[in-house]
Structures are given as structure tokens and as C-alpha cells.
């Protein structure tokens, strides 16, 4: 039975959601203020924490900050913010301090919430499976120095035919390529390795490409500026419009770009970044003379 910590200070609301979650087969533990939530999260692991932002003693963002300890230690329990304060500033802060997701209360009734909870639990389960996938032995880490000098591409694609076509061509062009089959797997890899550019589809299992891009851009740190190129074929118009406004470097229809063209485009982006960095260094040097 999956365990859920529900952090909600309104007794009536917490009772409604506790009853609904319990009826769906979950073990539900309640916390009514931020300090109680921190103590419970630090003392044991939950399969999911649903965290409101408006709380007495400590607000939800403060809870996330204390749990993350400025990024030095992640919570053992996946935390999803469950709040009506779903503006961009609060979402950005929540992701920055370790939240795995954000559910706007007003958008889901208690029955619909169950579907979202199930989705995040599946995501958490998948993440556990992925934790060891990209761990390398010391022998693997030191086997090829040349690999470390290659530009590293993360290709996020679940269709074998396209992942094979694109990855093989990119490798022939001299890139190092890692393939992830979904957005969650890509995030797991990003936590462990530095990469130079991401190529992603939109329609992916577990976590879609637009969700992946949102998390990368909102989580802050160096990785928020990683160049991202979207290659997709069957996404809806609204999804396409959304990702094009997410500070991506390019969008291509999967069936209309050949692997060699994609490789050349990736090369041009990386070369452009290299030139920009050089120009920045030259300018800095001149100013200091």
C-alpha cells in the first residue's frame, strides 16, 4: 500500500482528501503545519508528499528549502506541491527547491486528484528503476579519455527507429550520444552527468517532452540554459506552440528532417555557443587591460 503525506492546514479540506485517497487504497498521514511536515518528511520515507504552500509556522516553500538544505540533500520522499498559488514565481521556487511536480488545487476535484496522484506515483516508481541505469563503474569512467572530449548529446526519444537513426548519425559526426526513452529518464541522467545539448520529442511515456523542458528551465542552476532542440511529429498544435515559447533553440518535424541535417544543425548551435563564449572572454580581457 502506497503511503501519502498530505500537508494541509484546513481540517475540512484535509478530511475530504484523506477520505478520497484512503478509499482509493492509499495509506494517508496528515500534517497540519510546515514544521510538522518537515519533521515527518525527515523521520520517514513516503511514496508521495502532497504539500500546500499556505501553511502556519512554515510555508510550503520554506518546507522545501529546509528539506533540501540548499540542495545538499534531497528528500527521500518525492514532493508534489498541491496549492492554488500556481503562478510562475511560486512554481519556479518550488522546482528550484526540489519539488517533483505542481498540482493546482482549483484544476482538480478530489476524484480527478487520484489520477494525478497515480501519475506521480508511477513517475516515482520509474525513477527508482532509472537510478542505477547511468551509474558507471570506475573502469567505465576511465576507459576512454577521448569520449570525455566529445560534445555530449542527450537524445530523448522512445521510438526505436528514430532513436537509432539519429543517434547513429550523430555518433558518426563525432558526438557522444546518450539515449533516454522518456523525460523522467532524461532528468535522472541530467542529475548525474554534464551534457552539452538535448534533443527531445514531445510525445513521450512517463513524462512528456514539454514537461521535461519546463522542469529544466524552472529548476535553475547551470542546467536551465542547456540548449534544447525539439524533434516531433504528432504533437498537438497547442503543445507545439507551448514548447516554442520555452527558450528552445529549434523545432523540427521528425519526418521532415534527415539525420545528417539534424547533425549539422546541432553542430552549428554548439559552434555558435563556443564563439559566444570566446567573444565574451575576449571582451572581458580587453576591459581588464
- Average pLDDT reading: 83
Counting H and I runs of at least 4 residues, what is the number of helices? 12
Q: How many discrete domains?
A: 2
**What's the CATH C level of the largest domain?**
Alpha Beta
- Give the assembly state of these chains: single chain
What is the N-to-C succession of helices and strands? EHEHEHEHEHHHEHEHEHEHEH
Describe it.
The chain is an alpha/beta fold. It is built from 12 helices and 10 strands. The strands form 2 sheets. A 5-stranded parallel sheet has the order 2-1-3-4-5, with helices on both faces. Helix 1 links the parallel strand 1 (3-7) and strand 2 (27-31). Helix 2 runs parallel beside helix 3. The termini are far apart.
What key phrases describe this protein's structure?
289 residues; Rossmann fold; five-stranded parallel sheet; 49% helix; 16% strand; alpha/beta
Put the structure in a nutshell.
The protein is α/β, with parallel strands linked by helices. It has twelve helices and ten strands. Mean pLDDT is 83; it is low at 277-289.
Layout of secondary structure:
Elements: E1 3-7, H1 11-23, E2 27-31, H2 34-43, E3 48-51, H3 60-68, E4 79-83, H4 88-96, E5 101-104, H5 110-130, H6 138-141, H7 145-149, E6 152-156, H8 160-172, E7 176-180, H9 183-192, E8 197-200, H10 209-218, E9 228-232, H11 237-244, E10 250-253, H12 259-288
Parallel strand pairs: 1-2, 1-3, 3-4, 4-5, 6-7, 6-8, 8-9, 9-10
